Amino acid sequence: MSEMRLKCPRREQQSGVALILLTLMLMTVLLPMVSLAIDLTMLYTIKAKLQGAVDGAVLAAGRSITGAVSIPTQSTRLRNIAQAFINANLPQGYWGVSSAPTIETPDCTGTPVYPANCFVYQDSGTKKIWINVTASVNVPLLFARTVRDETTHQYRQTQTLRAQGQAMRRWVRLVLVLDRSGSMTPAMTSLINAVSNTDPSKPPLGFVTGFDESRDQMGLVVFGGSAIVAYPPRNPNLPNSGTGPDNSFKTGSPASILNEVTTANLQVGSNTGTAEALALAYKELTKNPQPTYLNAIVFFTDGMPNGITASFNGNPATPLYSGDTGSTGSPGVMKNAGCTNWNTPGNPIVGWIAQEGGYDNTKYQSDGINLTMQNSWHGSIIASPTQTQLYNDVIGYLQDAGYDQGHPPQNNVNGCTFANNNLKKDLNSFPIEDDYGNKTTTADYQNSYIYNTWPSAGPLVTTGTAVDNAYHIGLVSWNAAYNAAKRIRGDTNLKPTFFCLGYSGNGTGAAGLDRSLLKRIANANGGYQTWAQDPMGQYLSTDYDPTSTTGAYFEASTPGSIAAAFQMVQSQILRLSM
Amino acid sequence: MSHTKPSESGVAVIEFSLTTLLWVPLLLGTLFFGAELVRAMQAVQVIRDAASLYSRGVPIWSPSSKYLIAGLGRELNLQQTGGTATVIFTTIQFISKNECAVFSGTSINCTNMGFWVVTQRSTVGNASLYTSSFTNDPLPSSELSSTTGAVNTTTQSGVTYPYYLTDSNLRLTSAFNLLTVQVDGSGVPKVDGNGLPLGYGAGTPAYLVEGYFQSTPVPGFRNNPRLAAVALF
């Protein structure tokens, strides 16, 4: 009993020890642990959110860079865009955040010591443009408020988080390919404005102005029945010469794309030699090749291909009639006694052929073999007073199809002349490939609008009376254009990407566009519909190649809408060049 | 000789038991809430990575891309076509008078001028589980490419134009207030003295990625919980 009395006080003293221990444990172990689990995880979550916001901000700002004005001039706008994307991704109130993150990265002027510390920076050497964003946000703490900061000897109420992001604009190297065939007459002024408008009071600015000469490179090919490299200028006496797209496309003097794409210079006429235009654009990209650039071909047209440029006695040779052996009984190329080139591949007879008057199978109209282009169709390409001789040579160059393949002027081809407007008198079959190696007689034409619109006209006939049949010339030209694009996209080094713009103001189908072809050229992601499902080729690219570069197709249906279509292309290119 | 008499034995156990009423829920709650936070952090990371890929042009609709995205969210049970998570990719753009101008002078009435619209939609994961918080789902499937999710074009009176210019079902809902484009009263984008758009450009795409992940239910409290993460790139 006495022992019990002695023990009772000890037991009472022991009572509550566990609570005390628990309280101590709460203070020293549990709360810090909870603080660690809750607050730190919350901080990490917000940090991840902040990092995502910064990533989105630099990409959006980089996407919005334009070459129309200098980088410092647009810095404020880019900063506002970056801030808007940060606000969108981590708004005020997210997990109790009292205010949206702020961009800390300053604008830099002059030559900064540490470019990475500048919001937007263009490297003078590499010309690359960097967007750098460091953003911070104050996050209110929950349990961790009970932890005293030994540095400030205060209880920490908030924690500042920072995240950094960086995006680099990739350079763009593109060739603009413009259709100036006769059917473009009503829309040519709108096309010129869409490409080269520099007046900010009449927006939108032209497509060309959106690119930056200090880093981007651009070239120009214009085409009718035959195509020429209209920019950059080069010595036409040296076929395959030139630099390819360069950095003076806006301010070059006297030659620049802005100077070339004018009412005076970009004149209309002739037919639609799509394959040669694409081939020349690609040849330009291969000069001083830049695999690290985004290599692009922007192709504008209002019509279906209806002509090809070929070496009619090349390798493989296209049989030229050797005289009155054709069914017409009319003289052919060899009727002229002085024509010594007809069967000599070393002395090529190069020209372009085209059809006229639609693609109806009943029509037998063609331009015959044209060895020359009319000067008036091309206008002045180089008007430099100091380049008089060059200018004269250029005129000659313009007159000769296939000059870029190294073929000399051949207005007379050693006495050979051709039967204009009656191809059947000159050829007894189509060439199996054009002057650039693009196949012309493959079965690909079966995806063409022409073939699917006149299925009763049957398969392509490459010989005999078909050589001056509008339908078959159309199929041959379609094949050449399709295969040209396919070959170009097969370049695994440059990886060229096509952006096609179709002008449907002149109608579609027989009157104008083959949307299906343009989507195929671009390798657009249009799904896998068939002609039966979509006879107008609205959505399809039945042979979309996922291993090749994916481009895009845009369409303008009125002259006034061409500029907007070009703006969409510009937006796509700038996105891809990030 | 024992220091504890039989009457004393168990006191500590009792007190310990009483204290467990406090710290065990605290500990379990901490573990549960911490785990949920970790999942939230994972969700944010997945959506951020997915948005980065999407905005850089990765064809998210392709099987290989879906495999990649599903791999990013594997711990959240994100699968290519099933699972308990849904990631919704939407390309959006603002329609100003310039975008409508592509078809100006034609018979179409560009009723979506002044609205953000959907131009492409792809979904990875269980598409039937969650829908977008910013669009009028389900979007009209006949107006989207069954392969790529891009909004199709239609031809009316000989004019071909994308559905997103006219179909109100492709507008974003008023819940989307994340980004603004400055236009004047007639719908023309405002520009500065250099001809540059003020703020983000109309017609310029933006990339919206939403992720919804089924979360751990707590009977009586959270029967069908979900984690959500959104990114705009």
Question: What does this 3D model show about the protein?
Answer:
The complex is a heterodimer of chains A (578) and B (233). With 578 residues, chain A is an alpha/beta fold. Helices cover 29% and strands 15% of the residues of chain A. In chain A, the strands form 4 sheets. Chain A has a 6-stranded mixed sheet, with helices on both faces. In chain A, helix 4 links the parallel strand 7 and strand 8. In chain A, helix 4 packs parallel to helix 12. The N terminus of chain A is likely disordered. Chain B has 233 residues and is α+β, with helices and mostly antiparallel strands. Helix content of chain B is 26%, strand content 19%. Chain B has a 4-stranded antiparallel sheet, covered by helices on one side. A two-stranded antiparallel ribbon of chain B has the order 3-4. The mean pLDDT of chain B is 86. The interface between A and B is large, with 80 and 76 residues.
> Terminal Cα separation of chain B, in Å?
76 Å
Quickly count the helices of chain B.
Answer: 3
pLDDT below 50 for ≥5 consecutive residues: which ranges of chain B? none
Tally of helical segments of chain A: 12
Q: For this entry, what is the oligomeric state of its chains?
A: heterodimer
Main sheet properties of chain B: 4 strands, antiparallel
Can you give the mean pLDDT of chain B? Answer: 86
Overall shape of chain B:
elongated
Q: Give me the strand/helix succession of chain B.
A: HHEHEEEEE
The neighbouring-strand order within the major sheet of chain B is 2-1-5-6
The beta-strand count of chain A equals 15
What is the helix fraction of residues of chain B, given as a range? 25-40%
Please state how the strands of the largest beta sheet of chain A are arranged side by side. Answer: 9-8-7-10-14-15
- Radius of gyration of chain B equals 26 Å
